Amino acid sequence: MVFYHGAPFKFNTSLRGQHNKFIYGTAFSPDGASLVSVGSDRKIWLYDGKTGEAQKQIGDGEHTGSVFGVSWAKDSKRFVTASADQTVKIWDAESGKVVQSWRMGEEGVVSIPHQQMGVVWPHGRSDGLVISIDLDGNLNYLKEGEPNPIKIVRGHQKNVTAAGLSGNTLWTGSYEGRVCAWDVSTGTAETVNGESHSNYVAGFASSPEEGAGRMYSVGWDDTLRSIDASAQTFIGSSTKTDGQPKGVAVARAAGAQVLVATSNSIEIYQDGSKVGELATKYAPTAVAAMADKVA
Fold first, then answer.
1. Is residue 126 scored above 90 in pLDDT?
2. Whole-angstrom distance, CA of residue 283 vs CA of residue 273
3. What is the pTM assigned to this prediction?
């Protein structure tokens, strides 16, 4: 770790020997009295914030994975760390002890998407809020004294490539195949459960015939999939299309037949089975249905 003095900033000290692998995060306490560093060797080091002199290592053995992020509380007495071991921990800087710890994901189960990649202790607040981000792109809202996240903000990590509306729910799909269901009134999303598309989501179409309805999606993994809108989960097995899907529609007047536009035809499905096909002399790029008409 290189320590600079300024401004203008000039090289002062090169610190070696504290960490023996990559250093992933450093942070000065708000009062400038202390400096902390964390890294892939799972170590946490504290330094004098004025001189850069190493003071002590704390928390040996607490984190069992790389420590990716660190952030101080506004009182300069505590800081919070985020780790690949799926935990976020609050530390007392003076005693070097953990004040509170959260573990994300199912208890006892190793989950790579729940690795905690970064964390911030927002200043200007008095409610003890800490926000961490995991490898799956979710923002975890953590509050001192609460054992579980008080809120999890989910969304997409890749370009959104398709959208559809069903009642008060907005459905979106992205380039890597993730499908999210958004509550329009609150603006919050849940990732749709079950086996999603493996890549680019190309379209959505809704069908209200069953309970709260069903959503159909198509993707460039050449599949047609069905979503239970009320449970927000994929249901049944995927249906393989004969070409790359460009769009999807539901012809309600025909008993909820699902129409899929591919690169060379319009394919017709019902109850997961193909029941018809219209070959085209052109390459369709979109399909829509209204009553007994299809465009």
1. no
2. 23
3. 0.78
